[in-house]
Write a structure and sequence with these properties.
Chain lengths: 148, 437
């Protein structure tokens, strides 16, 4: 009877822990949604959909630059880079990318994204398959953040 | 056990395990990691906290355990460990299935050190579980197992904390670091209390062995007396951890029921049957040796349950705590009716046979011996304590009495079922789980 009671206590406790862990995940997920704002959601889940305006017009115009950086940020968010990296304290601050362009060349940043093992064979990071436009935008965003 | 109290302690447990995680919700930034990723992280943190709280469960905090009885706490420790291992294993499994890119972290050659620490923690925990659940089948000596258990537990928790710190989620901000450092230190504090503080306190309060008496049925009664201190107050039926021929720091203590009456003197008596490695050495213990005692523990006592009369049901050496209660009742001049059912295989091996006969003259005591192998001409009960035996001897007001059952698990369970069938409410049946290792 006491063994049964102990098992019952454990069953109830274990179940509550799982339920509360789910609650935690739901709250976190919800706050992610809230922080990135509703209109952007489509962009973030499918960055290739082209909701962020493509870089048209004068390649060097300020508006075009800003649009590229915005697209880069969208790719950065959608690819969940913040699970491991942070910029301006947002994301996982274990591996910050602030001022990354002062440490790495643009080519190196690009390699770290698409083929990290070429930069360091021992690293346990996967290479990301991105469209050329997305990759360019992401690198632009990262180097832009590097100047801040 | 009242459900209200149980609910309270479950809430305390959940608070210890999950409060840190929910506190950390404050001030977190967006990661866009998705539900499964967050869920897996929550499981990792909860599992780590559960590992830490495991140390508290077996730290023998008397006040926190009193409402349950320490046996329930130890069984909770045993079973909740399975849940914790499940959550901890689910943590990387969910992460990998959610994002196969992190699979590389499981390769110790390429993974960062903090990932290997996490993996090593899971391996230590798995070894811990296997050595605990199958200790006897693996032929592990109890003392050796305890030392390994302690070492693996500390390693598993230490590696898990290193993993948490190394990965860096929710521990980046200074206040988060402070919070986790505080939590980690409190767990280490419990370890220090159990391994250093408590043994030191026990060491300072030694006992002298004053007698080792042979009893019927390959049992010995060890009598100890506090040396230069008052000993402790206990309720009849409680038990204590006894250390003989070792330092309290050596982790060579074993739990035994106290078979003496708390009214008689400051002496403590433990009646121990020769069953395993340690109990076989009891007969070689001599008067004048030093003993260390950590107690009292347990909720198996008449003092917690007032009733118009008591029924004691013993199987074999399970008589020891019941003997303590019978002696206490006699010392108190208690006139309430008591029935003792006592099952043993053979009449000549019946532990405490003479002592029980003596108590008959001091108590309103009816004794029902149930013998497995009765001698020729035996007219009493035979076989097992079954519904037939119980119903033949229990009085008509059996629903008002409280029942204390102590013996092998199979007997205890059979008797509980039989009593339930005879209309005795569950809350009036009291047992204690003995196999705590």
């Amino acid at each position: 009877m006491r063994i049964l009671f102990a098992k019952l206590l454990v069953g109830v406790t274990g179940l509550l822990i799982v339920v509360l862990a789910i609650l935690f995940a739901v709250i976190r997920n919800h706050s992610d949604d809230a922080q990135r704002g509703a209109p952007q959601t489509v962009t973030l889940t499918t960055p290739e959909a082209g909701v962020v305006p493509p870089t048209t017009g004068g390649a060097n115009s300020e508006a075009a630059q800003a649009a590229t950086v915005a697209r880069g940020r969208a790719v950065y968010v959608a690819q969940r880079c913040r699970v491991c990296h942070s910029i301006e304290g947002e994301g996982n601050t274990r591996s910050p990318l602030d001022r990354v362009s002062s440490r790495l060349t643009e080519k190196e940043i690009r390699l770290w994204i698409v083929a990290p093992q070429e930069m360091n064979p021992a690293v346990a990071k996967r290479g990301y398959q991105l469209s050329e436009e997305d990759l360019n935008a992401l690198v632009k965003y990262l180097t832009a953040s590097g100047r801040r | 056990m009242q459900l209200g109290r149980a609910a309270f302690w479950i809430a305390v447990y959940l608070g210890l395990v999950l409060a840190p995680l929910f506190v950390l919700l404050v001030g977190t930034t967006e990661t866009n990691a998705g539900f499964w990723w967050h869920f897996a992280i929550a499981l990792g943190f909860a599992g780590t906290a559960m590992m830490g709280v495991q140390f508290m469960l077996t730290a023998r905090f008397k006040r926190a355990m009193a409402p349950f009885g320490i046996d329930i706490i130890y069984y909770f420790h045993r079973y909740i460990a399975v849940v914790a291992l499940g959550l901890i294993v689910a943590h990387p499994v969910i992460l990998v299935s959610d994002n196969p890119a992190v699979l590389g972290f499981l390769n110790p050659v390429r993974a960062p050190w903090q990932m290997t620490a996490g993996l090593a923690s899971i391996l230590a925990l798995t070894a811990l579980m296997i050595s605990s659940w199958w200790r006897k089948r693996l032929g592990l000596h109890y003392d050796a197992w305890r030392r390994w258990h302690s070492a693996l537990a500390i390693a598993a928790l230490g590696l898990a904390l290193a993993h948490v710190g190394g990965v860096g989620h929710y521990v980046a901000a200074p206040w988060q670091r402070a919070l986790w450092a505080g939590i980690g230190l409190s767990w280490l504090g419990v370890v220090a209390y159990v391994r250093v503080g408590k043994p030191w306190w026990t060491l300072r309060r030694p006992y002298d062995v004053v007698d080792v008496r042979p009893e019927r049925g390959d049992a010995w009664t060890v009598v100890v007396r506090p040396r230069g201190h008052q000993g402790f107050r206990y309720h009849p039926g409680q038990f204590a951890w006894l250390t003989l021929r070792a330092s309290p720091f050596a982790m060579r203590e074993h739990p035994f029921s106290i078979s003496s009456s708390p009214m008689a003197s400051a002496h403590l008596e433990f009646t121990i049957k020769e069953l395993g490695d340690f109990t076989a050495t009891i007969k070689t213990v001599r008067s004048g040796e030093t003993a260390f005692v950590d107690g009292p523990y347990g909720a198996f006592t008449i003092d917690r349950h007032q009733a118009p009369g008591y029924v004691f049901i013993a199987g074999g050496i399970g008589i020891a705590p019941l003997m303590g209660m019978l002696r206490a009742l006699a010392d108190r001049g208690d006139a309430r009716p008591i029935i003792l059912f006592y099952a043993y295989r053979r009449w000549e091996r019946l532990t405490f046979r003479e002592a029980i006969e003596e108590l008959r003259s001091q108590l309103s005591l009816q004794v029902v011996y149930v013998l497995g192998e009765p001698p020729e001409g035996w007219e009493g009960e035979t076989g097992l304590i079954d519904p037939g035996v119980l119903s033949r001897h229990l009085p008509s007001d059996r629903r008002n009495l409280h029942y204390f059952i102590c013996g092998p698990e199979a007997m205890t369970q059979a008797v509980e079922r039989a009593l339930y069938g005879l209309g005795v409410p569950l809350r009036q049946m009291h047992t204690e789980l003995f196999d705590m290792a």
